[in-house]
Recover the amino acids of this structure.
């Protein structure tokens, strides 16, 4: 008996009982169920924790079963703790448990179901409920589940096949520019190429605030990057593919605030946050820590005369809104002239006006700093 | 481009620097390795831009070190006016409150980052808007790079064989009226770049395509209009064609 197919995104119109709509990147076509097919490379699935209801299901089809018979089938986690005694064994068990908790099975088990086989030993597509899963509690991540499929006979369970599944878990249904279009070839359906990065950067985040903070920190701290005033990754559309290529190339590249805002908002919203990009104009800045600068190096604390600055905004653009800025770190020390600097990454920081804890106060030395009330979420290409 | 920036850069005066009585058109251009000795091209991307434009991005490393890197963005537009709009967009989305004018002779119009900012130059020649920026760990002077790229665009091949056919569509040439001209390149010649130069007229294309088949010629005034076209491919002799018209 064999597993022939496993479906995770079996309902492209919903996310409360099954997986999200995905694609690999801008090219090609969407990833559709069945994500696991015997003999083919397995495709990943993604779940939005905040959207999931009480009954999460997968579907599967089988072959090679006993003709004209009904059997109870289930899938259980195939993980077996390392069997080694002594101190080494204890250490291995601890390491295995940690790795498993971080990256292991989040789908739980597929609860037993009676499956009928026809005269040729084939089943139809059968629905299984997931039990003992951690989809609502594990937090953001990319994890692998290995299932042992079993049938029940003579009071015992007997294994007959094994399947492996890669699963992304995000906080909530992705917000714009990402969509959950169920038809056509919408390139704004979440990209697994982008989820690979976002889920790694925000691993373990369980709320939108946590996810947005971790994404902002990640964008601010990528190696090989430095600041330029020129927009490098698009201002009509966001050159997400080009940005990810630059990250992967391992060579130096440059970003400005628009590029950082695009990255913060796009990757955060991929995880289910609700951020927007927005600009404000005309300012001379206080000294701030430049992108990838070293806070103990005074020369890395710079001031610019800017025509505009662009950042991420929570919910809307406005003085009373919270912001996320992945492009720089502000100085919380009040004396610009001395060598004492207290770096703070602006994460969920009130834009504000004159308050010393406000972002505006910490960034702008002089100038209007006029808000442009045009929130954006740029199309990814 | 925001009105505030248009006033700041005196965009009316900038637009007047586009030649009124001649035209250059560059179709399919991306900087080639043989044109930049000492540099190795490590990336070529074609990226979407605003409608009517296409961005070809190349990234270059020094042959001896990865510490020096240059990014050259060439935005192909339908016309010189379109290229100037693309330049305006780049000024709009440059955080600096003010860029400096570029050196005389770099394109029709050029701007550069001021001292203290990572080196970058922006210029328009023909229907192309180009940015050249130093993006490596070690900054390099980019005006030489940009000037070399600009010269390569403006140069007409010294040696070429006849083979490009330029055929105006029905109707005569009239001052101020765009005249479609068919562009026929020999089928067995796959050009990397097509250059078209005109005296007495401005040039444009109706859309940016992979294989251009025509362009638009708008006479600047009554009298003779001369057009030369070159199809170029690396390692091959250029193929050329010419056309002379009388405009009403």
């Amino acid at each position: 008996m064999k597993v022939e197919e496993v479906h995770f995104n079996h309902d492209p119109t919903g996310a409360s009982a099954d997986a999200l709509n995905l694609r690999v990147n801008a090219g090609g076509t969407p990833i559709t169920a069945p994500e696991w097919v015997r003999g083919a490379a397995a495709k990943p699935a993604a779940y939005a924790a905040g959207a999931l209801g009480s009954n999460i299901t997968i579907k599967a089809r089988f072959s090679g079963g006993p003709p004209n018979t009904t059997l109870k089938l289930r899938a259980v986690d195939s993980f077996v703790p390392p069997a080694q005694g002594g101190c080494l064994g204890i250490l291995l068990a601890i390491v295995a448990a940690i790795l498993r908790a971080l990256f292991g099975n989040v789908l739980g088990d597929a609860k037993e179901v009676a499956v009928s086989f026809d005269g040729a030993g084939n089943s139809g597509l059968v629905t299984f409920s997931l039990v003992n899963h951690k989809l609502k509690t594990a937090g953001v991540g990319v994890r692998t589940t290995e299932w042992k499929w079993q049938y029940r006979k003579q009071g015992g369970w007997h294994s007959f096949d094994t399947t492996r599944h890669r699963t992304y878990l995000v906080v909530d249904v992705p917000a714009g520019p990402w969509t959950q279009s169920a038809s056509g070839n919408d390139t704004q359906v979440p990209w697994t190429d982008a989820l690979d990065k976002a889920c790694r950067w925000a691993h373990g985040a369980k709320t939108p605030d946590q996810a947005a903070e971790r994404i902002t920190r990640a964008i601010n701290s990528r190696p090989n990057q430095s600041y330029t005033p020129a927009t490098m990754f698009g201002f009509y559309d966001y050159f997400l593919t080009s940005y990810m290529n630059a990250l992967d190339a391992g060579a130096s590249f440059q970003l400005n605030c628009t590029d950082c805002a695009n990255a913060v908002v796009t990757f955060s919203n991929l995880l289910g946050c609700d951020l927007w990009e927005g600009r404000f104009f005309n300012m001379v800045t206080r000294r701030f820590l430049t992108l990838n600068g070293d806070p103990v190096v005074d020369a890395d604390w710079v001031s610019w005369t800017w025509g505009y600055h662009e950042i991420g905004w929570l919910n809307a653009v406005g003085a009373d809104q919270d912001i996320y800025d992945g492009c720089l770190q502000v100085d919380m020390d009040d004396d610009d002239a001395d060598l004492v600097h207290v770096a703070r990454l602006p994460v969920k920081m009130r834009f504000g006006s004159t308050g010393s804890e406000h972002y505006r106060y910490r960034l702008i030395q002089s100038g209007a700093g006029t808000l442009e009330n045009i929130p954006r979420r740029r199309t990814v290409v | 481009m925001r009105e505030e920036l248009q006033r700041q850069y005196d965009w009316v005066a900038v637009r007047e620097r586009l030649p009124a009585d001649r035209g250059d058109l560059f179709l399919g251009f991306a900087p080639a390795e043989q044109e930049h000795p000492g540099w190795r091209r490590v990336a070529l991307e074609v990226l979407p831009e605003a409608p009517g434009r296409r961005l070809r991005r190349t990234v270059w490393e020094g042959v001896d070190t990865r510490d020096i890197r240059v990014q050259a963005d060439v935005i192909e537009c339908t016309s010189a006016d379109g290229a100037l709009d693309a330049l305006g967009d780049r000024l709009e989305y440059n955080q600096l409150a003010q860029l400096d004018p570029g050196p005389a002779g770099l394109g029709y119009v050029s701007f550069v980052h001021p001292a203290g900012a990572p080196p970058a130059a922006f210029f328009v020649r023909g229907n192309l808007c180009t940015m050249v920026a130093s993006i490596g760990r070690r900054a390099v002077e980019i005006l030489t790079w940009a000037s070399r790229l600009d010269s390569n665009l403006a140069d007409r091949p010294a040696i070429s064989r006849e083979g490009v056919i330029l055929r105006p569509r029905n109707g005569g040439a009239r001052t101020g009226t765009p005249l479609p001209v068919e562009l026929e390149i020999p089928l067995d010649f796959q050009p990397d770049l097509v250059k078209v130069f005109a005296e007495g007229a401005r040039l444009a294309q109706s859309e940016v395509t992979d294989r251009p088949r025509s362009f638009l010629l708008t006479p600047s005034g009554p009298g003779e209009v001369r057009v030369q076209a070159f199809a170029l491919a690396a390692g091959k002799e250029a193929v050329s064609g010419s056309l002379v018209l009388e405009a009403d």
